[in-house]
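Methods: example folding runs. The two proteins below were folded one after another, and each record is reproduced exactly as written to the output file, sequence line first and structure-token line second.
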Amino acid sequence: MFAVIVVLMRRYLGQTKFNQLRGKLIALHAQIITRFCDRFNIDRTTRQHLIRLAHNNGKRLGLLNISEISNLS
């Protein structure tokens, strides 16, 4: 379901604007994870693990381009 929304948004916005928006949302998500970890005194290694987990979930849900997936694997 979520992947369908992503595909429709990419078509609506165009690839360039879609990538800009996606980059901003990814950065915002990483900031939210960092703030959460800071608030609850979670160590840096665990924070990095949470960000990596979010990234991998994005791959699984189809939020990353195929070229990015092959570059990051």
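Second run, written to the same file directly after the first:
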Amino acid sequence: MRESDWVPSAGMRMVYTSAPDDVFIPGRDRLVRRFERWARRQRRPVDPFTVEALLDHRWADGDGLLSRWQPEDLEEALLDWFPRRCADQHLLHGLLDKLGAPFAEAMADQRRYGLAKFWATRMVDEGVDPYGPCRH
């Protein structure tokens, strides 16, 4: 694992399926604080409100699994949760506009690739279908 990869501390609760408010909210607040500290150490900007809103979405409308995100989860958060719950649409639009180019750069930066992405990218570059006939 690279130094820049963020992982919650050992013992940090990440599953809040059907958890009541008085259990989830303090856990969410601890997670946001730890994430902010990590972002500062990495010199990465972070908007605590956005992180909190995404965690609220996973708890209230999702499955409560805070550390498991699929592309459709993020799509639902951006296209359903934020429009329904966030009064300041300019904040979200500004964030998305600001992150567009840096996101594209980060996705193309091979130094950020994990092991699986590195090899899958190499396979595709060489014309090998990673989902080809050897798939089990």
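Comment on the second run: The two ends are 26 Å apart (CA to CA).
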